[in-house]
Amino acid sequence: MSSINKRITIKEVAKEAKVGPSTVGRAMGGYGYVSGQTRRKILKAARKLNYHPNLLASNFRRQKTHTIGLIIPDVTNPFFTTVARGVEDQARKKQFKVFVCSTDEDPDIEKEYIDDLIQRRVEGFVIAPSTGGGKYLFDLQDDKIKFVVVDREVKNLKADIVHSDNVDGAYRLTNYLIKLGHRRIAIINGAMQTSVAIQRFTGYEKALLESNVPIVDALVKGNDWRMESSYKHTMELLTSKFSPTAIFAANNILGVGVLRALRETGLKVPTDMSVVCFDDVPVASLMYPFLTVVVQSPYTMGKLATQILLEKRSGQGLTERQDIVLKPNFIIRESCRPPRNSGETHTLSGMGDK
Question: Do residues 197 and 190 make contact, with C-beta atoms less than 8 angstroms apart?
């Protein structure tokens, strides 16, 4: 906990919230009656002042509620939905319940959920940090609150983590396209503030450099994990003077945006464009052509993270930090073919190279 946090007192929170110190004590300590409106006002004041009392951490550690918190960036993403299922199944085996919170990639919402779940005395967290988020996890460590990170790393945070080998998965997808003869391989990536986007670009870059294929800025797209952005970036690629013969989508949601853009412009996969994706797209895997992908193990990721959390919570787990890396599975399907000739590009009608 920072020195700023230590200087803030319960009286200062009470003054900010315009209530008495005893009311703040009841709200933060979870004892006695405090109306919902007053509690929210106090929590807002505490967040504004960055107040995390030692009493709260002490109560958190000794209270047994048999609940844990799961915080994920996007509950609509099938990857995180499957992580959640793994967390819930493992928690249920140990008679624990799970609060599931979706941050919509917003660090402020992430912090709000963490604070609220602490008030509910969950016994620990499984957290996939939001884009630009994760800084609040350092406060959890200072408060001795147990948590395990899944999927995304946080720079300089020495915490238990279960994640995929993103570099290897991206390398294998890109290398597969290179072996087919592709040289203009675009990548549509997510937010580069996240470790997974950085690592997947690293794998893409590694494969290109090993084969002496130039890395072209015009073929590198992406700034968030939204389907709408992927759709827009694909359209930009298709109408550019340096259009690709293959596209690598850095996750399943981005892959849906790529397929939508290709369908709307009348381009066929793989006849007109080869496509690979990091993570399977459940609906797309039932379509023709079946996508070539690397598939992660989100269920196992959630299950292992919860197992580590509950073992450490009970004092039975390993004391040293655990860093578990799961190897993704490379699946070749029917969404790729060699380019028809080395100089071929696939652009919208009338928008070829000039």
Answer: yes
Report cis status (omega within 30 of 0) of the bond before 270: yes
Closest CA to 190 of 255, 261, 107, 265: 255
Whole-number Å distance between alpha carbons of 164 and 125? 19
Locus of tokens 């933060």: 28
**8 Å CB contact between 290 and 333:** yes
CA atoms within 13 A on the CB side of 277: 25
Q: What is the pLDDT of residues 285-315, one digit of tens each?
A: 455 568 999 999 999 999 999 999 999 988 8
Domain contains 189: yes
To the nearest 10 degrees (0 to 180), the angle between helices 252-264 and 227-238 is: 50
Peptide bond between residue 282 and the one before it cis (omega within 30 degrees of 0)? no
Q: Torsion over CA of 80, 86, 89 and 90, rounded to 10 degrees? A: -130
Residue of 54, 51, 98, 91 whose CA lies nearest to 75 = 98
Do residues 137 and 238 share a domain? no
Q: Is 25 helix (H, G, I), strand (E, B) or coil?
A: helix
Which domain, by its residues, includes 192? 166-291
φ and ψ of 15, to 5 deg = -65, -45
Are residues 278 and 182 part of one domain?
yes
CA 347 from chain center: how many Å?
32
Same-domain check for residues 98 and 141: yes
pTM over 0.90: no
Total domains, the chain: 3
Tens digit of each residue's pLDDT (9 = 90 or more) over 69-112: 999 999 999 999 999 999 999 999 999 999 999 999 999 999 88
Burial 16-36 (b: 16+ CB within 10 A, else e): bbebeeebbbbbbbbeeebee
The answer to whether 253 and 265 have CB atoms below 8 angstroms apart is no
Q: Give buried/exposed letters for 209-219 (b at 16+ CB in 10 A, else e).
A: eeeebeeeeeb
Extract the tokens encoding 131: 């884009």
